[in-house]
């Protein structure tokens, strides 16, 4: 009788375990600034050991055709957090001090979607969607915020950390870079030594947040300010790499990833945590040895070439996302919000978004992602290219080019302006966008021009003087 009772109890436990819904996963998004496609070992970097990025690639899936919504700070962060083309929301470029616009608080973010679903939410690091309260993260679904309002080069110093005294240089009139806790300024960053503390400080706060909130589902958005210039590494990593200060910074970011992985392991949260690691755009190549690698793609940040928008994406969710996987489906950072919503059971934003749910692909329930088309916008609202599957039609536009000169030692080289003609590239055979094949495939050009017309009707296009039908307004900053 005793053995029968034990059998029945075990059977009941197994049955109940299957009947009860699994707990909702924690979600961590780690977002680097200006980290290029080729800046870590899983994506081809040499000279910089990245054991924790390597671990993510081994324990998760590495995506090879993942694009930022635009190749610049504010726009890319808008795309990530709202699931929308940033120009749909009037959030283009990179906000500078005195900017009269910010993300409209009426827009829903990953944080507000998950907070509504019962998650504790926090942001650490670089915001860049509004320069002052009430346009800081706690007004967009985050329960707490600690970090800087915009890029850490927006201060009255040059890229070597020296005060700019020439008042004809508009940067000399920028305010001192401030650190904020929620809406309150708590400290100032006035030197490269101060900046050298950022990666470690943000990592320590991330670890503390995970430990403090481990008993209920949480969302952590960790937006590292680096490897955007000016570069600064803490003493424990300074001089440790073969590639100078840039390599030291990447090693410290890799350490940060490792600290979070160790914490998830120690707190027994790893199996129930969806961890997403990516970058806002490609490298700022004119900074030469202080910039990263576009991994062989053409050009870099602030261009619509692949080097500007193609960025790394590593996703780990043990037992769910394939370990050691490599995926070449077209995906964008706009797709992160709906995919997280699907993974957590959260409700999507009420207003139209452009992101698509990739969870079936991530969970290997499908071999094909839902996205076939991506619009390359830049500037205020310039449609500069269209991607369809493995085809990319570059439309006529003016672009920056890093070809003339690269700087050294933290000083940037010249950036040319070049006129880009219309061209068609087959990214499956020509990822470097070197060979125009539009004369060979005129039917593909016609098809992609049709997609361009759809984009112009929806979002507009300054290059053809078109007003979009579905544009929403940003907030106005007084």
Describe what this molecule looks like in 3D.
Belongs to the sulfatase family. There is one protein chain. Helix content is 25%, strand content 20%. The protein has 478 residues and is of the alpha/beta class. It has 2 domains: 26-368, Alkaline Phosphatase, subunit A; 375-476, Arylsulfatase, C-terminal domain (2-Layer Sandwich), CATH 3.30.1120. It has a 10-stranded mixed beta sheet with strand order 8-7-6-5-9-1-10-11-2-12, with helices on both faces. Strands 14-15-16-19 form a 4-stranded antiparallel beta sheet, covered by helices on one side. Strand 15 (382-388) and strand 16 (391-394) form a beta hairpin. Helix 6 runs parallel beside helix 7 (244-266).
- The proportion of residues in beta strands is 15-25%
Q: CATH homologous superfamily of the largest domain, by name?
A: Alkaline Phosphatase, subunit A
Helix content: 25-40%
Q: Kindly state the mean pLDDT as a whole number?
A: 94
Helical element count?
Answer: 11
Tally of strands: 22
Write down the Rg: 22 Å
């Amino acid at each position: 009788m005793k053995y029968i009772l034990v059998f029945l109890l075990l059977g009941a436990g197994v049955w109940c375990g299957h009947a009860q819904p699994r707990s909702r996963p924690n979600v961590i998004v780690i977002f680097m600034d200006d980290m290029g496609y080729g800046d870590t070992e899983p994506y081809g970097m040499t000279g910089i050991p990245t054991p924790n990025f390597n671990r993510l690639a081994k324990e998760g899936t590495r995506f090879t055709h993942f694009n930022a919504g635009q190749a610049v700070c504010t726009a890319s962060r808008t795309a990530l957090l709202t699931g929308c083309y940033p120009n749909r929301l009037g959030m283009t470029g990179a906000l500078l001090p005195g900017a009269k616009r910010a993300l409209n608080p009426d827009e829903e973010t990953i944080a507000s979607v998950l907070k509504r679903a019962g998650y504790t939410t926090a942001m650490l690091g670089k915001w860049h969607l509004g320069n002052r309260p009430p346009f800081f993260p706690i007004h967009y679904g985050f329960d707490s915020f600690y970090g800087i309002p915009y890029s850490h080069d927006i201060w009255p110093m040059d890229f070597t950390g020296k005060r700019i005294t020439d008042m004809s240089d508009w940067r000399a009139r920028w305010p001192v870079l401030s650190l904020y806790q929620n809406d309150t300024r708590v400290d100032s960053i006035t030197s490269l030594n101060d900046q050298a503390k950022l990666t470690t400080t943000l990592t320590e706060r991330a670890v503390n947040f995970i430990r403090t909130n481990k008993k209920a589902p949480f969302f952590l958005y960790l937006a590292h300010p680096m490897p955007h210039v000016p570069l600064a590494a803490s003493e424990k990593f300074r001089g440790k790499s073969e590639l100078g200060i840039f390599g030291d910074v990447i090693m410290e970011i890799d350490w940060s990833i490792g600290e979070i992985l160790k914490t998830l392991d120690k707190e027994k949260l790893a199996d129930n945590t969806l961890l997403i690691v990516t970058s806002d755009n490609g490298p700022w190549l004119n900074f030469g040895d202080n910039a990263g690698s576009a991994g062989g793609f053409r050009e870099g940040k602030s261009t619509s070439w692949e080097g500007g928008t193609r960025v790394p994406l590593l996703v780990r969710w043990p037992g769910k996302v394939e370990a050691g996987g490599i995926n070449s489906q077209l995906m964008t950072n706009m797709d992160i919000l709906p995919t997280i919503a699907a993974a957590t059971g959260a409700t999507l934003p009420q207003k139209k978004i452009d992101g698509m749910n990739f969870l079936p692909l991530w969970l290997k329930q499908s071999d094909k992602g839902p996205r076939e088309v991506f619009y390359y916008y830049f500037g205020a609202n310039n449609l500069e290219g269209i991607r369809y599957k493995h085809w990319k039609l570059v439309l006529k536009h003016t672009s920056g080019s890093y070809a003339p000169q690269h700087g050294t030692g933290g000083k940037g080289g010249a950036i040319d302006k070049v006129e880009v003609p219309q061209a068609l590239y087959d990214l499956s055979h020509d990822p470097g966008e070197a060979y125009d094949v539009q004369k060979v495939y005129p039917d593909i050009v016609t098809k992609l021009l049709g997609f361009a017309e759809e984009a112009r009707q929806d979002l507009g296009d300054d290059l053809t003087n078109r007003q979009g039908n579905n544009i929403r307004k940003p907030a106005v900053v007084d």
